[in-house]
Specification:
The protein has 153 residues and is an alpha+beta fold. The protein has a single domain, classed as Alpha-Beta Complex (YbaK protein), CATH 3.90.960.10. 25% of the residues lie in helices and 31% in strands. It has five helices and ten strands, in the order H-E-H-E-E-E-H-E-H-E-E-E-H-E-E. The protein has helices at 3-9, 25-32, 64-71, 81-87, 134-141; strands at residues 15-18, 40-47, 50-57, 60-62, 76-78, 106-110, 118-122, 128-133, 144-146, 149-151. The strands form three sheets. It has a five-stranded mixed sheet. Strands 1-8-7 form a three-stranded antiparallel sheet. Strands 4-10 form a two-stranded antiparallel sheet. The longest helix has 8 residues, at 25-32. It is globular.
Length: 153
């Protein structure tokens, strides 16, 4: 199911934004003229054999040690591009939308995301993004909110 179909089915108001292809969340922030703290970057990890979708601001990185502690995981690592291709067959690698439910993954959201009340996120391709209210994102994505990131300088 495509992201827009999912959002429409959930009756969530959103805006589709088209831009030149970008390959990092920070590039998306620049293209969309929004702060990096409002761009939802998706990072997939595997903790003790279970995949989790981590959603955090574009200008931050996952603190793997902190995340492992929060999940009480003995082993935690980033998913490979090959794993991402298998988990998200309808998406371009690196443009995974932050809706774990669409892909059977639990969504973990960093508590620093979307402090201005909205998020912009990839829509499955490098040339499209979706903008929606943070409260709508949280109501439909049902993320577990944790603190697991640090700001890049």
């Amino acid at each position: 199911m495509q992201v827009m179909d999912f959002l429409t089915q959930k009756r969530v108001p959103y805006q589709v934004c088209s831009h030149r292809p970008v390959f990092t969340a920070q590039q998306m922030a620049a293209e969309e003229h929004v702060p990096g703290m409002n761009v939802a970057k998706t990072v997939v990890v595997r903790a003790d054999g279970t995949y989790y979708m981590c959603v955090l601001p574009a200008c931050c990185k996952v603190d793997l040690e902190t995340l492992a502690e929060a999940l009480k995981a003995k082993e935690l690592h980033l998913a490979s591009e090959q794993e991402l291709g298998q988990l998200f067959p309808d998406c371009e690698v690196g443009a995974e939308p932050p809706f774990g439910e669409l892909y059977g993954l639990q969504t973990l959201m960093d508590d620093s995301l979307g402090q201005d009340g909205y998020v912009v996120c990839p829509a499955g391709t490098h040339g499209q993004a979706v903008r929606l209210k943070l409260k709508d994102y949280q109501a439909m994505a049902h993320p577990r909110v944790l603190h697991f990131s640090y700001h890049l300088h």
